[in-house]
UniProtKB/TrEMBL annotation:
Official protein name in the record: 7-carboxy-7-deazaguanine synthase
Cofactors demanded by this protein: S-adenosyl-L-methionine; Mg(2+); [4Fe-4S] cluster
Parts of the chain that traverse the membrane: none
Phylogenetic placement of the source organism: Bacteria, Pseudomonadati, Pseudomonadota, Gammaproteobacteria, Lysobacterales
Catalytic reaction annotation: 6-carboxy-5,6,7,8-tetrahydropterin + H(+) = 7-carboxy-7-carbaguanine + NH4(+)
Protein source organism: Luteimonas aestuarii
Coiled coil location: none
Amino acid sequence: MTAVSPDAAAASNADRLKLTEIFLSLQGEARDAGWPTVFVRLTGCPLRCQYCDTAYAFHGGEWWSIDAIVEHVRSFGVRHVCVTGGEPLAQKRCLELLSRLCDAGLAVSLETSGAIDVSAVDARVSRVVDIKTPGSQEAHRNRWENLPLLTAHDQVKFVICGRDDYAWARDRVREHRLDARCDVLFSPSKSEVSPTDLADWIVADRLPVRFQLQLHKLLWNDEPGR
């Protein structure tokens, strides 16, 4: 975790967010995979997906002012920034942070669980919305009202835990015509489904989705801050 900004303690509660970490890495998934990207990981999440690889962000963290976050992100000297968690939208002031990062001329993406209303997110932000499958054990938390709000600027992601999960996700893509709305991404849950099997299922069904592996896990496994 990068040291807390010296002005964070003096910032008003209305201008602070609790952060787990800020770091520079390669974006490992979604449309911007491969780009050097600053990750702003906010603390806290109301969901408990059984495959979660960032449980360390559920608790703890340090308070940062929004000014300090934006300044620190800009100091890395790269264009792309991803606000993630945890569930970043669980902190209401995340919306202000997203807008401020856009105002700074950055290419901003938001990784969100799909359980919280995304309607107030700045339109300049690419919203990467998870749809939780039954295998995640959190499918009941999906906020289906988010889907009609999505545009070609946004993305939808499914983490697939097995053949039944795949069939469920395939049917949701078709039911909601997601491929006509935005990019749709299918990822295999690590150690639960073979990437080769998932790729074969997608090809066999001619499913209009993008298969992806998490590049950061191939490079650095699940090392925090990478």
